Amino acid sequence: MSARKRRSNDLQEKTQTSAPCGLKENVPHQRWNFHFDLWFCLTLQNWILDFGRPIVMIFLPLEWFPLNKPSAGDYFHMAYNVITPFLMLKLIERSPRALPRSAVYLCIITFVMGASIHLVGDSINHRLLLSGYQLHLSVRENPIIKDLKPASLIDSFELLYFYDEQLGHLMWYIPFFIILFIYFTGCFTKAREQKKIPVSGWLLLGPSSLYYWYLVTEGQITELFLLTFLAMVVVVIIKQRKGLSPDSNGLFLFCSFSVTVLLVALWVIYLWSDPVLRNKYPGLIYVPEPWSYYTLHIKQDH
């Protein structure tokens, strides 16, 4: 009798917490609200721990952080590698729709691994900068690299560049944007009052979009970002045919990416005729890195 009652209670509990199409029933009202706390923390730590990382290494005295020890930027990177996946998991938890947990966990694991690879490569790269390495030049064209003996050492530095700027970035950013896209797919509603971005969201839109511009340009992930944005546009079109529109959180993310596309386009137009940067970024999609622009046009002028 007690076993039958226990099974009946379990069945009732499952019925109350699940629904067709991955939607959650009896969703707490907080899940439909604008997640200002998470968006604010995510934007703030992105600016401080990611964008501010190379800046703090420039201004803090070198004597505080010997070249054979982690720098202040390295500690910023370590904090970023812990805080960012935690905030993204909290964002997924707030979703009003049941999202694929296995995909989210796999992305988080890959994200941490890629960001950690980048941590090591970027740490060594900063020490090369202090020795005269020029970011606007390729590895083999750099004055402190091209005359190394034996010449096989240059191959090692090219491998380091590959881990830092290519493999590390891909394993870092691909899962990052997949998680945001997965979250975005759950941010749709029919309720009109849930489709408006509050004032706090509009205030965050500028800093958020500007950071994504930095992420796309410095991370050299224009193709990945554009694919993510186009996928979001497709989802919006499909959902609107079903009478659904992005809620305040989905609209905030979509607007942030839209402004980012505009900022990247303006950045490319501004540097379109720069011969030195053109030589370093010869690919089909020309998007120079901000720090390459800094070492070429700002640092040399001072």
From TrEMBL:
Residues 1-21 are annotated as: Disordered. It holds the Pfam family CLN6. It comes from Pagothenia borchgrevinki (Bald rockcod). The chain crosses the membrane at residues 104-121, 170-188, 197-215, 221-238, 250-272. InterPro entries: CLN6. This is Ceroid-lipofuscinosis neuronal protein 6. Keywords: Membrane, Transmembrane, Transmembrane helix.
